[in-house]
């Protein structure tokens, strides 16, 4: 890591993260002596594909970003489970470097309708419905 951080521009550095939360924290501690900025916290929602969990990349000012390799919702090609999530995770890196990139694959509708999303969306929809019904009642009661 010492050699890479001294010789390679930060926007060209990509780490593939195979770690769970505990191992990632140890990696962050070890990396902190070579990086000018702290690495992002390990998001608890990372599920990954196989043992690979995330992609870590940087802006030119060493701002770090961690992107999950969450395969849920992607149509997985037989024998190539990482292709679709890697396309998505590496898209910001390719864009920053001006690399011609095969766009991310289509994400099926079910990706956006995961149970964890519904748990967050349903209360919001209920609040909006309550607000709109209150507004309608106020208009009719005037």
The succession of helices and strands, N to C, reads HEHEEHHH
pLDDT average, as an integer?
76
Rg over CA atoms: 21 Å
Strands side by side in the biggest sheet: 1-2-3
Keywords summarizing the entry:
single chain, 142 residues, mainly alpha, three-stranded antiparallel sheet, 5 helices, 44% helix, elongated
Description of the structure:
The protein is mainly alpha-helical and 142 residues long. The protein folds into 2 domains: 2-107, no CATH class; 108-142. 44% of the residues lie in helices and 10% in strands. A 3-stranded antiparallel β-sheet has the order 1-2-3, with helices on one face. It starts with a helix and ends with a helix. The model has no long low-confidence stretch (mean pLDDT 76).
Summarize the structure.
With 142 residues, the chain is mostly helical. It has 2 domains: 2-107, no CATH class; 108-142.
Q: Would you spell out the secondary-structure blueprint of this structure?
A:
Layout lengths: L1 H6 L6 E4 L3 H11 L22 E5 L5 E5 L14 H15 L11 H4 L2 H27 L1
Antiparallel strand pairs: 1-2, 2-3
């Amino acid at each position: 890591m010492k050699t890479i951080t001294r010789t390679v521009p930060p926007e060209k550095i990509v780490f593939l993260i195979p770690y769970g939360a505990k191992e990632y924290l140890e990696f962050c501690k070890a990396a902190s002596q070579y990086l000018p900025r702290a690495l992002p916290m390990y998001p608890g929602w990372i599920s990954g594909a196989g043992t690979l969990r995330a992609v870590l990349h940087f802006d030119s000012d060493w701002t770090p970003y961690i992107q999950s390799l969450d395969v849920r919702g992607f149509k997985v090609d037989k024998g190539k489970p990482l292709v679709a999530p890697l396309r998505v995770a590496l898209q910001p890196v390719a864009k920053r470097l001006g690399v011609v990139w095969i766009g991310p694959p289509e994400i099926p509708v079910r990706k956006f309708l995961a149970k964890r999303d519904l748990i967050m969306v349903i209360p919001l929809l209920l609040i909006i419905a309550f607000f709109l019904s209150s507004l309608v009642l106020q208009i009719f009661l005037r």
